[in-house]
Amino acid sequence: MVLQVSNPNNVKVYTVSGSGYRSIPDWLERKKKRVLKNDPEWSSRIELIQDFEFPEASLRVKTTRDGRFIMATGVYKPQIRVYEYSDMSMKFDRHTYSENVNFVILSDDWTKSVLLQNDRTIEFHTQGGIYYKTRIPKFGRDLVYHYPSCDLLIGASSHEVYRLNLNQGRFLNPFSTDSTAGINVTIINPAHQLFGFGTENGTVELWDPRSRSRIGLLAPQLPSFSASSSDLFQVTAMEYKNDGLSLAIGTSTGHVLLYDLRSSKPWLVKDHQYGYPIKKLFWYDVVIGNEGNSKIISADSKIMKIWDKDNGANFTSIEPNTDINDFCVVPDSGLIFVANEGIQIGAFYIPSLGPAPRWCSFLDNLTEEMEENPQQNIYDNYKFVTRKELENLGMDQLIGSNVLKPYMHGFFVDLQLYEKAKLISNPFAYADYREKMIKEKLEKERESRIRITKKLPKVNKELANRLIKSSEKKRKNEEGKTTTVAAVDEVNNLLKDDRFVELFTNPEYEIDEQYDLLHPTNKNLRKDSDENDEDEQMNESEESGASTFESETDSDEDLITQLNKRKGVKLKKTKDEPIRNIQSTSKLQKNKVPNRKWDNMGEMTMTFKLNNKNNKKDKKDNDYNNQKRNRRSASKNVFRGLNY
Fold first, then answer.
1. 278-294: string of b/e by CB count within 10 Å (b at 16+)?
2. Element (H, E) at 562
3. What residues does the Nucleolar protein 10-like second domain cover (predicted)?
4. Torsion, Cα of 75, 78, 84, 88 (10° steps)
5. Any long-range contacts for 100-103 (C-beta under 8 Å, 24+ apart)?
6. Positive or negative CA dihedral for 538, 540, 545, 547?
């Protein structure tokens, strides 16, 4: 046997009955016995109480004070059914002429009861059947019995609360309220017998049974964010707590208000969030879980919520498949019976709320076994795939067969078949998966390492970053290893220097990065200089910055001369010589000395000779030639000296 279990708010709720599975008649069960044997839904069902159902729907359900019976009303046809716990079966059923609105059990067992019917009649039932029937002037909505005075209080669609004295056997003067529409709820405080009447106008009137007069009027107010002032609501449910001071009020807007009778303002307002009228409230004080805090059970037609009375925190909830009409809690246990619009009367067991009753103590053993051996989900052996995935796996030809179960925008396929098809379509999937896992593991290990964060200034970030990289290269050349930490510290000390603070803090000193885009020639020259002489660039940048490239020059010749001086290469340049020729010569290696010649047409011929240290004569000739080429001609004739 297996119970359906839900886990709202991490609190397990076991559905004992009323899960929505179909009810099969006896004759059909005998006829299709073999078929039902193979039905997992039917074979795994649990019948806590046999015939715990009605042909169409259940309306009200209540337990007797002696804890031995449960009484329920339902349709169709309208009837009463009494069940005995010891036998776990129905004791008897009894039909009535009209549907039941509410009923009260007068005795400790089921033998005496009063039923309020929807045709303005009140029926008194005893052990042998119906005993007496009478009518009231208006359609009744609720009733309650006052044991000290033997008065039966009946709320109806009138401003009066009818009083029927069962000792005298006659109606007494009714209680006249200020309600203009009707009385929805009538309750009696179990501690001091204070009457409470919830009206259709949205007010609660409190009456003293001794003086038979009203002693208080409570006008509940909903929060402004939940309902506007123009919205009218009714009081649809009320319940006193055994302490005699606490009162719970349910409204037609789905709100529950908790009051202390000594205050006119609620200490807590709970919203069901569905907007359906609250049908019943119950104070549950015997809680074994959640530190034993008292709980309140409130139900509308859609959901039953169990929450903390102090802060309104949700403990758990029960949401049957059908609309809720009524519920009752088996005393001192976590078992709840729910009357609903389904055939079966719902039974829900919450171990965190309380233990199982004595007459069904096997529920504890059953839930413990389910904890040890959790039930496998029905979808664990299937894989959901789309049409595109089927085409990629080469399984699109199986569409329409029994292998694929259509569902929404895709299909359910057997998990083993899916794994085989995936392996055939991509045999290297495991290798790719293994490589991916290795990369992820290495990335996690890299993330655990200590990383150095470079805090760059807001102004001239690129300059600060270049200084850090240059410092790293310098230290690497000197010490033979990269010391990023020392380089960052060195540049940070430079940024903190009073002489250079404004360079990295004052926006007016920010270097225009667009200059290189507007002057690409200078940018290439700077890159060439960086490649050939890194140490010299570091020293010169600290002394004069980028003055060579950013200083104003009278002509291109001065710029090239400055570049040659910085490079240590002495070249002769004429006025018409293009700058790209100078750029090409600036990339010469240090161990080679160029020998260039110009012809009459302005073309240049360049030859190279290795610089031999032993050949001092060649070295002197090269130096002499370089000095002579670098000498500026005094004549304006640009063709002079081209054949030299």
1. bbbbbbbeebebbeeeb
2. helix 556-567
3. 378-426
4. -30
5. 100/59, 100/60, 100/73, 101/140, 101/141, 101/142, 102/60, 102/142, 102/143, 103/60, 103/62, 103/71, 103/73
6. negative
| CB neighbour class for 318 (10 Å; exposed up to 12, middle 13-18, buried from 19) | buried
Residues 6+ away with beta carbon under 8 Å from 32 = 24
pTM: 0.58
Of 445, 493, 444, nearest to 468 (Cα)?
493
Q: Tokens 């009203």 — which residue?
A: 214
The DSSP letter of residue 407 is E
**What pLDDT does residue 524 have?**
54
Distance of alpha carbon 338 from alpha carbon 25, whole angstroms: 22
Given a contact cutoff of 8 angstroms between Cβ atoms, the answer to whether 475 and 483 are in contact is yes
User: Which DSSP string corresponds to 440-480?
Assistant: HHHHHHHHTS--------SSSHHHHHHHHHHHHHHHHHHHS
**Are the CB atoms for 256 and 269 separated by under 8 Å?**
yes
Rounded-to-5 percentages of helix, strand, coil across the chain: 30, 30, 40
Place of tokens 């009278």: 554
What contacts 72, CB < 8 A, 6 or more positions away? 54, 58, 59, 60, 61, 62, 80, 81, 82, 83, 337, 339, 345
Beta carbons within 8 Å of 191's beta carbon, 6+ residues apart: 240, 242, 243, 244
User: What's the rounded Cα separation, in Å, for the pair 580 and 608?
Assistant: 19
State whether residue 218 is helix, strand or coil: strand
Q: Is the dihedral of CA 287, 291, 296, 299 positive or negative?
A: negative
Count CB-CB contacts under 10 A for residue 463: 19
Are the C-beta atoms of residues 423 and 429 closer than 8 Å to each other?
yes
Measured between alpha carbons, how far apart are the two ends of the chain, in Å? 111
Report the alpha-carbon distance of residue 131 to residue 114 in Å, rounded: 10
pLDDT score of 362: 86
Joined together, the tokens standing for residue 409 give: 């925008």
Give the per-residue pLDDT at 12: 86
Adjacency order of strands within the sheet including 204-208: 183-188, 195-199, 204-208, 213-218
| pLDDT tens digits, one per residue of 130-154 | 999 999 999 999 999 999 999 999 9
CB atoms within 10 A of CB 532: 17
Angstrom CA distances, 160 to 173, 182, 185, 454, 490, stand at: 10, 8, 12, 83, 93
pLDDT in tens, 400-415: 888 888 877 888 888 8
- Euclidean distance between CA atoms 571 and 564, whole angstroms: 7
Instruction: Please give the Cα distance from 153 to 161 (Å, whole number).
Output: 6
**Contacts made by residues 490-495, CB under 8 angstroms, sequence distance 24+:** 491/464, 491/467, 492/455, 494/467, 495/457, 495/464
Residues whose CB falls within 8 Å of the CB of residue 269, separated by 6 or more in sequence, listed in order: 222, 223, 226, 255, 256, 257, 258, 312
Report how far residue 226's alpha carbon sits from residue 208's, in angstroms, rounded to the nearest whole number.
Answer: 33
- The whole-angstrom separation of Cα 541 and Cα 467 is 10
